Amino acid sequence: MRVEERLRIPFTFSRAADTLSFATSYDETARRLAHERRAIVRVSALPGTVPASLPPEYPFRWMAGALGQMATVECTTIPFCAARPISFVAITHRPEILERDLASSEIFASRRHQLIIITNPASATSGLNQGLERAEHGIVAFVHHDVYLPSWWESQLEGTLQNLDQRDPEWGVLGCAGARLDGARLQYTGSLFDGTARRRWGFPWNLPADVDTLDELLLIIRRESGLRFDETLSGFHAYGAQISLSARARGLRNYAALAECEHRSDSSGWSPDAAYFAAHAHVAKRWSHQPYGAMFGPMPSALPSPWREDVLAHHAKRSVIR
Question: Strands 292-294 and 177-182: what pairing?
Answer without folding.
Answer: unpaired
